[in-house]
Amino acid sequence: DFVFFLGDNFYPHGVESIQSPRFKEFEKTYAAINRPILAVLGNHDVKGDALAQVAYSTQSRIWRMPNFRYSFQAGPVYFIAANTNCRPDYLFHIHRQLAKASLPWPLVAGHHTLYSSGWHGDADIFNRAYWRWFLEDRVSFYLNGHDHFLEHLRVPGRRTDYVISGT
């Protein structure tokens, strides 16, 4: 039904404005998918005009980023799109959204890792501790980019699956 971009949408320095030709290049590249593309911000996106990526949603047929963070339902899945550039605020946002969720599969999509065997490694101890104490077993999947490879992780005895797709 849709494609999810996990940040660093416009590498290496985001976009300069809503008029950036990179948006048209993006649309041309992905037009054949013929599905909405939902996105979260990555650390490279915020080096440019991050608000332009939100604003472009009003002009595009396929690009969707209704805000820096947002949530929506698709079938039995409750998606929480988090702006992980704003630490630790993104964790509190997820916490608030989970309080509203009554669907069987809550899924969080963000850019930065919580756990990773890649170059960027695990999140700092505060973020991991908050996640583990308040969120981990309440989320079915945590999807992120940031590390430039594919990985699937599980913490033994916990219910959340971690999927890194930083391609």
Estimate the global geometry from the Cα principal axes. Answer: globular
> Total strand count, please?
9
Q: What sequence of helices (H) and strands (E) makes up the elements?
A: EHEHEEEHEHEEE
Q: What is the alpha-carbon Rg in Å?
A: 16 Å
The main sheet comes to:
6 strands, mixed
Name the assembly state: single chain
- Beta-sheet strand percentage? 15-25%
Outline the low-pLDDT stretches: none
Cα distance spanning the termini: 21 Å
Overall pLDDT: 95
Please, how many helices?
4
Helix content: 10-25%
Structural class: alpha/beta
Largest sheet, spatial ordering of strands = 4-5-6-7-9-8
Report on this structure:
- This protein has 167 residues and is an alpha/beta fold.
- The protein is built from four helices and nine strands, in the order βαβαβββαβαβββ.
- The chain has helices spanning 21-30, 50-55, 89-100, 125-135, and strands at residues 3-5, 37-39, 63-64, 70-74, 77-81, 105-109, 141-144, 150-154, 161-165.
- The protein has a six-stranded mixed sheet, covered by helices on one side.
- Strand 5 (77-81), helix 3 (89-100) and strand 6 form a beta-alpha-beta unit.
- The protein starts with a strand and ends with a strand.
- The model has no long low-confidence stretch (mean pLDDT 95).
Descriptive key words:
22% strand, single chain, 167 residues, 3-stranded parallel sheet
Topology, pairings included?
Elements: E1 3-5, H1 21-30, E2 37-39, H2 50-55, E3 63-64, E4 70-74, E5 77-81, H3 89-100, E6 105-109, H4 125-135, E7 141-144, E8 150-154, E9 161-165
Helix pairs in contact: 3-4
